[in-house]
Amino acid sequence: SMEGWIANTQYWSIKDGVITARQPQGVGQNNLFIRRTYHNFILKAQFKVIEGNTGVLFRAKPDKKGSTGSGYQMDLRTERAFERNGWLEFEPLLGNVRPSPSALARLRKSYKKQDWNECKITADGKHIKIQINGVTMAETENERYRSGFIGCQLSGQAHAMFKDIRVKVLP
C-alpha cells in the first residue's frame, strides 16, 4: 500500500510489492518519498526503467510541491541516455559526479534493458558511493546534505518500477 509513503497517486502505485511509476510528457518532476529521515545507510533496490528518466533520491528535502528541493540523486536511464546511468547529482543542480568510461563499459555488459537491475547507495558520513549491478558508478566525499528522505523520482515522460527496497541504517 501507499501507507508510509508521500506521493501523487496519479503517477505512483504499489501492487504485489512493486512500485510502479508512469507519467506523460509535460508533467515535469514527480517524486515518491519514504516518510522517514535517514542519515547514514546502505540502500539496495531492484529497478526497471521502461522509458525516460528516473532515479533514486536520498538525503532529500522535498519542497512544498513534493519536488526535490535539495538532496542527492542517483540517475537511472534507458538506452537512449545510457551514459547518464549512475550519475550522482547534487540538487538543485549544484553539480554532479559522473561515471568513468570504463565503469559505463562494465555496466553495459551487465545491464538488462527493460528488465530488473540492482542499485546500491552507501551514504556514510561524507562518503557516498553509487553502484549499479555491482559496478561502482560514482564515489565521492561530500558533506552538503547529511540527512533527509529517501525516494524515487520521475522526470518528463517516464515509466519505471522499483521493488525489494531495503535500507540498512548505519551508526
How would you describe this protein?
- This protein has 171 residues and is mostly beta strands.
- The chain contains 1 helix and 12 strands, in the order E-E-E-E-E-E-E-E-H-E-E-E-E.
- It has one helix spanning 101-110; strands spanning 5-7, 12-15, 18-23, 29-34, 41-62, 68-77, 88-91, 95-97, 117-124, 127-132, 135-141, 149-169.
- Strands 1, 2, 3, 4, 5, 6, 7, 8, 9, 10, 11 and 12 form a 12-stranded antiparallel sheet that branches.
- Strand 2 and strand 3 (18-23) form a beta hairpin.
- The longest helix has 10 residues, at 101-110.
- The radius of gyration is 15 Å and the shape is globular.
- The model has no long low-confidence stretch (mean pLDDT 92).
Question: Which key features would you list for this structure?
Answer:
1 helix; single chain; 12 strands; mainly beta; 171 residues; 6% helix; 12-stranded antiparallel sheet
Low-confidence stretches: none
Number of helices: 1
How helix-rich are the residues, as a percent range? under 10%
The N- to C-terminal Cα distance equals 29 Å
- Strand tally: 12
Mean pLDDT score, rounded? 92
Radius of gyration based on Cα positions: 15 Å
How large a portion of the residues is in β-strands, by DSSP E?
over 45%
Overall outline = globular
Biggest β-sheet strands, sense, barrel? 12 strands, antiparallel
Would you tell me the structural class of the helices and strands?
Answer: mainly beta
H/E element order: EEEEEEEEHEEEE
